[in-house]
Amino acid sequence: MMSTEAAGVALQDRAALWSVGAVPAGDVVDAACDALVAGLDTPALRILAACTRAEAYYDVLDLLPAALDELGLVFHAFGSPTGVEPAARALARRVLAGGLAPWGLTFWSHQREELELPLLQRLAELDEQYTLLECSGRPVDEVDAEVMAIARCLAARP
Questions:
Q1: DSSP class of 100
Q2: Which of the residues 21, 87, 119, 154 has the least number of beta carbons within 10 Å of its own beta carbon?
Q3: Measured between alpha carbons, how far is 34 from 64 in angstroms, rounded to an integer?
Q4: CB-based contact 114:81 (threshold 8 Å)
């Protein structure tokens, strides 16, 4: 079973990813359910966890702010640029855990328009390196290693 701290981090990560359109609302509801099972329990979290997948699409926007607030977590409005860095940290943790390939993080970064963080800018540049591997002769392991180093830096940010 997941610890309450890990469940809170997972819920915060899914909420951040949802805020930038990287995961569907149903993933946020799944994280809310996992948080309840792990022992986190607030009225708004129970309501959020009770949503069906069909309801999630419409209701997460209204229910998520209260659920996160009751847990002392941060809400980033859907489409808000303030969610980009937390979403990048969430994806970096996925890369480090082996749940996402390093190129997945670079591809995601390259698709972002709001790249104020230099680490995200570098990831976008590395996405181009993956594209040019055959021409440049640079080994994929070398690019992966640089992405992993950036992922560790991102994951360590508060």
A1: S
A2: 21
A3: 15
A4: yes
pLDDT of residue 157: 85
CA geometry: angle 35, 41, 46, nearest 5 deg: 80
How far is residue 137's CA from residue 145's CA, in Å, rounded to a whole number?
16
| Chain Cα centroid distance, residue 73 | 14
Tokens representing residue 53 in the block: 């997948």
How many angstroms from the chain centroid is the CA of residue 81? 13
Do the Cβ atoms of 64 and 28 come closer than 8 Å?
yes
Spatial distance between the Cα atoms of 120 and 90, rounded to a whole number of angstroms:
13
Q: What is the DSSP letter of 79?
A: T
Look up tokens 């976008």; give the residue.
Answer: 124
Choose among 112, 94, 114: nearest CA to 102.
94
